[in-house]
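Let's practice the habit of predicting before peeking. Look at the sequence and jot down your guess about where helices and strands might fall. Then scroll down.
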Amino acid sequence: MTSKPRGRTKPEVPQAEPDLLARRDDFIQTFFRKGAQLTEELLKEDEALRGRMQNLEAENAKLRAQLRSDTAIRELLAKIELLEAEKRQLLDRFDNAGAFGRDFAQRFADIELENSKLASLYVASYQLHSTLDLRSILRQLKELLAQFIGARSFAIYLADDTKQELRAVASEGVPVASLRPVVAGTGPIGRAWNSGHATWVDGDSTAGSVGAPAACIPMRLDERSVGVIAVFATFEQKPEFVELDFELFRLLGAHAASALAAARLFAQHGTRIGPLEPFLELE
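Done guessing? Here is the structure:
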């Protein structure tokens, strides 16, 4: 009898019950479904986080841009303040330059006025002493009164020592024949002759008259009054006397007297010069 060869036998696999298989399948499906849901939720959360990150990056970019803008604004404000300070400095320098320019212009005007005064005084002095002819001196004096003083009407009175009165020897705007002699100490002209001090109106010099002259200028020689220049009224273009007029009053009062006295002496003695001994004895 033949015997079968001995060997290992395959174990038998127990068969699963049907309900266990269904439960397994449900578990697997539930597991995978939850895994899919979890994955989907994770993906959504990741997407939300990515969106939030993008928003944060955008906000950060805005903040960085705003910071740069604020920095630029601060720098701009600082630059504006610097420019304002420079502008104030320039304005101060401009004001100082303007003040210096005005001071310089005023000084220049004062110098010009002083030069004009000196020129007028020189011309007046030269004109009075340029001749020894009495008629020429009176003519020069009348021109000086009209041109430099602005006299519209005036008269030149000389003293008559024997009668103690003044008589008009030349005039303008008023006939000489209509001017009466002036007794010493009477009226503005007589008082100016006695006192030796010039007088003038303070204000309107165009409305003077023979009885109330606008100015009375005594002509003095060695502290002695030899006559009076009476300015009755000035031209409309010369409404009042100014500082230069007062300088001319003093000059005319002194130089007109000496020029007229020299002319009168020269007229009395003619062209004869005389001997030199009196001059030599002065040494």
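How did you do? The longest strand covers residues 151-160.
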